[in-house]
Design brief:
mainly alpha, about 325 residues, 3 domains
């Protein structure tokens, strides 16, 4: 085994240890720091909070990176994406995680295949793996939110008919329903209690949850506050519409499940089979790379046709309701 491999192994183990310490090492200290901010706002304890040292442990380069990217457009977009995925990390922390996973991907690809182009592919895959995880979390959270929204609106309607205010009805949703919808409505209630208007709090929730159904609810509430009307009846109609949309989307998802899986298989199977063959018969697969421009042209054509087939299938099964 070459000395470069030992260097990669040592570097990968170090990066993995740093990543685990970073993710799991400072959770309690972070909570304590947030509580200190509220304690510092109390007049009798402000001096005590200022003299007490901050307990949170962070990686120094992540703090420096936070300051460097503060206010930049990509950092704000990344912060929004992380909020939609309900991940409690800053943009700088996420970039650090991306760099670490990229190095781990490079290490694993080099150890298994010992081939520079595949090692670079491992680097790219490791870099984008956290992004794919964030997108997966966003999709799952949005589906769960939309599935709960009809019940939440029904609960608000019953509360309004019983004499609750709109804020009390949202508080009931935050108290009675499970996450993620309870978390978002609880945040709306707390933001309004801290001084934000209802319009600002609802728009903030709409930024965090990119849902057409939620946009319909927020628009109805804001228009009713401007022009008046029976909010309970309006929300009852919206609840029925949302329930029907959820039902129809579920039926479409069932009917198109086979085609959706076919698209995933179309992408994963050739890549997985190629990697397996590379591990079984390395010399045979290296002919693609040792035959000059023709081998690379064949690989590029294969990748392009796979992507075209995948996107065509996704376009067919994507039915808007």
């Amino acid at each position: 085994m070459a000395w470069q491999t030992y260097v990669l192994i040592g570097g990968g183990v170090l990066i993995l240890i740093l990543l685990l310490l970073y993710i799991f090492g400072g959770e309690e200290e972070e909570v304590a720091e947030r509580l200190e901010r509220y304690v510092a706002s109390v007049p009798g304890r402000r001096e005590e909070a200022q003299t007490r040292p901050s307990p949170r442990r962070t990686l120094p380069f992540s703090e420096s990176l936070n300051r460097a990217i503060a206010g930049r457009g990509f950092a704000e977009d990344l912060r929004l994406q992380l909020a939609r995925a309900d991940l409690k990390v800053t943009p700088a922390e996420f970039l650090v995680i991306q760099i670490m996973t990229a190095m781990i991907g490079l290490l694993l690809a080099q150890l298994f295949f010992r081939f520079v182009p595949l090692a670079l592919l491992g680097l790219i895959a490791g870099f984008f793996a956290p992004r794919l995880y964030v997108a997966w979390r966003q999709r799952k959270r949005l589906q769960a939110f939309n599935a709960q929204l009809g019940d939440a609106i029904n609960l608000m309607v019953n509360g309004l008919r019983a004499g609750y205010s709109i804020l009390q009805a949202m508080e009931a949703v935050a108290r009675e329903l499970p996450p993620p919808i309870s978390t978002e409505f609880d945040r709306v209630v707390k933001e309004q209690q801290l001084g934000l208007s209802l319009e600002q709090a609802l728009n903030n929730m709409l930024r965090r949850v990119h849902s057409d159904d939620l946009e319909m609810l927020v628009t109805a509430i804001l228009i009713q506050r401007e022009v008046g009307g029976n909010l309970a009846e309006i929300l009852d109609t919206i609840s029925f519409t949302i329930r029907e949309r959820v039902r129809i989307k579920g039926e479409i998802r069932v009917l198109t499940a086979q085609q959706t899986i076919s698209g995933y298989v179309l992408m994963v199977l050739p890549i997985g089979l190629g990697l397996i063959l590379f591990g079984i018969n390395r010399d045979y697969m290296l002919n693609f790379f040792n035959s000059g421009i023709l081998g690379y042209f064949m690989i590029a054509c294969t990748a392009v046709m796979m992507l075209i087939g995948y996107f065509v299938i996704q376009r067919i099964v994507r039915i808007e309701v």
